[in-house]
Amino acid sequence: MTVTVGIGPVSFDDVVAVARTAGRVQLADDAAAAVEASRRHIEALAADPTPVYGVSTGFGALATRHIPLEMRTALQRSLIRSHAAGSGAEVEAEVVRAMMLLRLSTLASGRTGVRRETAEAYVNLLSAGLTPVVYEYGSLGCSGDLAPLAHVALAIMGEGQVRDRTGALHDTASALAAHGLRPVVFAEKEGLALINGTDGMLGQLVLALNDLDNLFRVADVAAAMSVEGQLGTDRVFADDLQRLRPHPGQAASAANIRALLADSDIVASHRSPDCARVQDAYSLRCSPQVAGAGRDTAAHARTVAERELASVIDNPVVTPDGRVESNGNFHGAPVAYVLDFLAIAVADLAGISERRTDRFLDVARNHGLNAFLAADPGVDSGHMIAQYTQAGIVSELKRLAVPASADSIPSSAMQEDHVSMGWSAARKLRRAVDGLSRVLAIEVLTAARALDMRAPLTPSPATGAVVAAVRSVVEGPGPDRYLAPEIAAVVELVQSGAVVAAAESVVGHLA
């Protein structure tokens, strides 16, 4: 597919497509015209003896120095080289590609003053499938994601390293030449325009929200399987009870669970008036309240992300009447806050999933199933240690829920004396989302085993379809087997959307 970048914002779907499918990119005609128009204002100011920040001055705490015309190419080159100061592990290619597309979107707004050839260089790099090497550490989330974006700009200059579509590492100059591309020599204002943005943290927010859209539905599937497998009641999910507390996410989650449990022989087997079960444990009964709150948190985060996608983040900016004005729109606080908020929701959703899993393994609470769901308890340990794995992940997710945005550390000789730490918030949320997928996968794997052990009673058609999907990659109950590959196989089912697809093949779209 080809994504066209115009003056307006790129969509969520476009960001995900370019990041994850290495789609091609092109610049719309209106964007090209806007870029050229704003560049004319910069070129007029470049010859003005009055210093203009970012055009004819140094940067940050060095903004008081006026730079002569003949030194301005060196100024832009030095800016990028010095700011490409990242360290640590490489950042994932999909994050770098999302970041590149979002920076291109701001360049295409016509408010940054870059030349058309500079904007086109981002188009060319993305379309060629060349991804600059960016490192884990380097952004404080204020004045933009400076170091990560500088590593991308370094590649536009023909320096540093890139990876191709296969993941092979190349020096940038050779890779550009192999694709018929030429390095860009930056002119006034351009280096600054390429690094002053929230694109790294925003790209990771968009990708996380895309993943969570799947995982919230997986959480409902897992909860339904656990309620069923633990002989819980479905009455608590009734629509009239849920409407007493009209949170939209809760309503959606409860509706999903009702649909998933419909026509379950297991649920029907203990629905009679003489059933001694009065109410289930919170981890079963309150599933919609927790998963629903997570959905509502994500809805708020999505609103913030949509506003940010529609924003022009640069400093200074070129106004429509040709002024070049400094501003503080590069501060990452709006994005950083929701990244941290989502990390709280992710940790709690994983926590309730782990508690449901644990109930399956305890003979005092699992209503007649074998201890640890073992084939021969004592000889076999069943899913005992799978729950340990869940618990270890959940414990880490609680640590990752500690907000990064509550921190700040001054930089640039106290010129940049308050920062957002939004990049750090994004990095820990990304790790947390991966952890949540693994916790939910272990619950699905454990619940599927329990449902098989309830035979001859049969699960609902929807949960039965999920059990069948699990059984396509993992054998049913029996003596202990090497468990790590089985967990990995179900993690893949969860992350790929196959668990949700299996359930939706029976009940239709889950909210």
Summarize the structure.
With 511 residues, the protein is mainly alpha-helical. The chain is 55% helix and 5% strand.
Characterise this structure:
Belongs to the PAL/histidase family. InterPro entries: Aromatic_Lyase (IPR001106), Fumarase/histidase_N (IPR024083), HutH (IPR005921), L-Aspartase-like (IPR008948), Phe/His_NH3-lyase_AS (IPR022313). This is Histidine ammonia-lyase. Pathway: Amino-acid degradation; L-histidine degradation into L-glutamate; N-formimidoyl-L-glutamate from L-histidine: step 1/3. This protein is mainly alpha-helical. Helices cover 55% and strands 5% of the residues. It is built from 20 helices and 9 strands. It has helices at residues 12-21, 29-46, 72-83, 93-107, 116-127, 146-156, 172-178, 190-193, 199-229, 239-242, 248-261, 265-268, 282-285, 287-309, 333-361, 384-400, 422-453, 461-471, 484-496, 498-507, and strands spanning 2-5, 24-27, 87-90, 131-132, 135-137, 161-163, 169-171, 317-318, 324-325. Strand 6 (161-163) and strand 7 (169-171) form a beta hairpin. Helix 15 packs antiparallel against helix 16 and helix 17 (422-453) crosses helix 18. The two termini are 27 Å apart. The mean pLDDT is 94.
